[in-house]
Amino acid sequence: MFQVFKKLDWFFKHYWKRYTFAIITLIIASAIGLIPPRLLGYAIDHIQFQTLTSQLLTIIVVGYLVLIVVHYSVSFIWDYTLFSGAVILERWTRSKLINHFLRMTPTFYGKYKTGDLMARSTNDLKAIAQTAGFGVLTLVDSTTFMFMLIAMMGFSISWKLTLAALIPLPIMAIIMNKYGAAIHARFTEAQAAFGNMNNEVLESIRGVRVIRAFVQEKQDKDRFEAMTEDVYQKNIAVAKIDAMFEPTMKILVGLSYTIGLGYGTVLVFQNVISLGDLVSFNVYLGMLIWPMFAVGELINVLQRGNASLDRVNETIGYEADVKDPEKPMSVTEVETIEFANVSFSYPGTKRNQLENINLSITKGQTIGVVGKTGSGKTTLFKLMLRQYPGVVGEIKVSGVDLERMSLDQIRSWIGYVPQDQVMFSKSVRENIQFGKSDASDEEIYRVMELAHFVEDIKQLPQGLDTKVGESGVTLSGGQKQRVALARAFIKDPEILILDDSLSAVDGKTESKIIAHLREERKNKTTFIAAHRLSAVTHADHIIVLEDGIIAEEGTHEELIQNDGWYKEQYEQQQLEDDKEAIS
After folding, report:
1. Which portions of this protein are annotated as coiled-coil regions (predicted)?
2. Is 323 among the domain residues?
3. What is this structure's pTM?
């Protein structure tokens, strides 16, 4: 149960001064709270024996008021110190998670669903923060404060009465331990179900257009309701155990009260203790309710925190598939890029997606990459970005193997426009500035002209400040592609990769973008993957991939003479373009 504190020792060691101070002040506040019941018993004894004077009563009342002020002040200090530490832990862990997410490769995101990662970044972190705040509070109160109360009851009143009243404690310990194990198991299941539900909501929102187009609203609603019912049932299972804590505690505390009051009355009649002592004892017994209840709360909180911490640690502990080398080599300039006998298969697959790729590129060249769907075009680019391990052969930049270079340096050279454009829920300006955070409006308009987006921006209601919505929902497919192009252009990278990123624009727009691209990228390397071959006819070198193998390569003119797939596909597309022009 207490393993959660061991797992968080890195945090407690860093903030040991804060937590030491918070615990000391909490103990001081608890000690101050022990004094008023003794004052009450003292006053009752004086009343019983008719020795209470006005002067003594004034001293007792003033003492009460002073204790209230001091207790409040000390309680505020420990409360602020302890719970602000819990907030810091939540912030730290959330930062560790997002940094971890940013380092992870596609393999990680194939294993963990987005909704589950969101659950771990929200609900689980709240449970961990509660452990570092309320958990520490209940730990101190259920141990230190309880022992202080028991010592006060035993030493100042009667050990016989104290031990008799505490007979239910061992029973409570056994029951609470069983409850704790059940809470851990059920809370883990509930959090996993919540993560799945989160993922379902995300997919429904993202795919709402498809759901409506296929008239699947009812089916999606039914599926979501079934998932919600599963989450509900699993949380009800947690709540059932939760609900058993309080009644169990009340029964045991009531039993303690019964023993204390019954046996205490006998001791008063036997003149072993005074009436004031019995009143004080019962007040202490009432104060003992919270520490005894805190034992149950402590088990509850720690088991929830432990389950959540295991889930978060599992995520953070996932080792990145691709790491920086221990001693990375630095390359000042991208002069050449070379693929030497490169083969690759995705993790978990037996068949190679790329086979024996050999390619030599010099600075300033434009390389066209074409082929059927699934031929390996995107895979080739992913290897250049070092997104996957397990590459056979070598990919070298200026004579240095990519695996011997830092990931930051490799990716700082590359401007990548993938097939599926990612738009952030911000303005057009902010989406383009993602490629260069300090870019001026003048620079933005220049790259929009290169991406042939200037006329489109005039049609948007707020121009550059127009919000594109979730995943760019307010933009068309072609507009999203061109914003993504502008974002890559403004970075002005050494290597520009366009992965079928002109597929949603018409032929005229494509030709204008290509013309701008040729002018702009004269001395820099560009890779263009496309299904429409007109996008690569100007390339210095074109490779045709077929089932991961380079089936043809050369310039456009050389490939036309080869009489292979490239020529056949090019002529077919030309015929289609002519038909469209006539119609």
Report:
1. none
2. no
3. 0.71
